[in-house]
Amino acid sequence: MKRKIAGMLLIVTLLILTGCAGGNEGTPVQSNQDEEGTPLKIVTSFYPMYIMALNITDGIPGVEVVNLTEPTTGCLHDYQLTPGDMVNLQDAQIMIVNGAGMESFLDKITENSSNMKMIDASKGLELLQNETDGESNPHLWVSISGAISQTKNIGQQLAESDPDRAALYLANTETYIEKLEQLRTKMHQTIDPLDNRDIVTFHEAFPYFAREFDLNIQAVIQREPGSEPSPGELTDTIQVVKASGAKVLFAEPQYGDTAAETIARETGAQLYYLDPAVTGPADKDAYLQIMEDNLQVLGEALQ
Ligand SMILES: [Zn+2]
Questions:
Q1: Sequence spans of domains, the chain
Q2: C-alpha of residue 224 to centroid of ligand 1, in Å
Q3: Which family does it belong to (predicted)?
């Protein structure tokens, strides 16, 4: 799919930015169309990309950012485009996607919107493989370093796509990266000295985060949302958690916690919630806040 995106970038680079007056379907959150400049509509595929785009386009006249999916949708692993999504995409000049296999519906979009520029936030980034199925893990943004790399990627590609506003995108990108770097330093200061580094998580969202902070993922209980473990898998997981001696489990606020509660009860492990930042408010500082909250939780759980 990567090659496909790259090929398409070449083809459409010269076709974009023809301008587009009016037609503000969806939920424009950031729009300053009173001032000069060709209006630009950017669609992001899901929440983490949306927050990065809000930061990179902050205060830039004429740029509107719309999130394709509801801010409550979460990860897009099995997401199917709706007719409403296709309408929303019709007048967009640029789409920002996570890439790395997160958006399995991309082929459909490129068939229908051949003159829309696609920005791949994971372009050129090193990906971890899932141990279970050998597929690339797309949850790069869950580590701060991954979020920094993706922000850089988006900022640079936006600047290339819209040269008139390039300096503004790049300045905003710098500002946001500085905030992310400060947060990363603060998280290291809290997490590095913790003695307990073993975590059990739900859904394959935390490998990048765990690598960044040298945490040890001992088991992943529910690989993706919507698939509760079978009774057999539950029994196996309880065995794994017991054998590992893990004292804490980290569930995610977005997903069902029945299995997590059962495992916590059966193993005596304490249940906490870590947020992979796949849902949240339409606020450019939301990712920073979510990670501050995660830091609080980790500090408490692993001390
Ligand atoms: Zn996911």
A1: 2-185, 194-301
A2: 6
A3: Belongs to the bacterial solute-binding protein 9 family.
Question: What amino acid is encoded at 214 in this protein?
Answer: D
CA of 20 to the centre of ligand 1 (A): 34
Cα of 276 vs centre of ligand 1, distance in Å, is: 8
DSSP secondary structure letter of residue 266 = H
Give domain 194-301's CATH superfamily.
Nitrogenase molybdenum iron protein domain (3.40.50.1980)
CB atoms within 10 A of CB 123: 18
pLDDT tens, N- to C-terminus, the chain (303 residues): 444 444 444 443 333 433 333 334 444 445 444 455 899 999 999 999 999 999 999 999 999 999 998 888 888 988 989 988 988 898 999 999 999 999 999 888 877 777 899 999 999 999 999 877 788 999 999 999 999 999 999 999 999 999 999 999 999 999 999 999 999 999 999 999 998 888 888 778 999 999 999 999 888 876 555 667 788 888 988 898 888 888 888 988 876 678 888 889 999 999 999 999 999 999 999 999 999 999 999 999 998
* Ion ligand 1 — residues with CB < 5 Å: 75
Total Cβ atoms within 10 A of residue 19 = 9
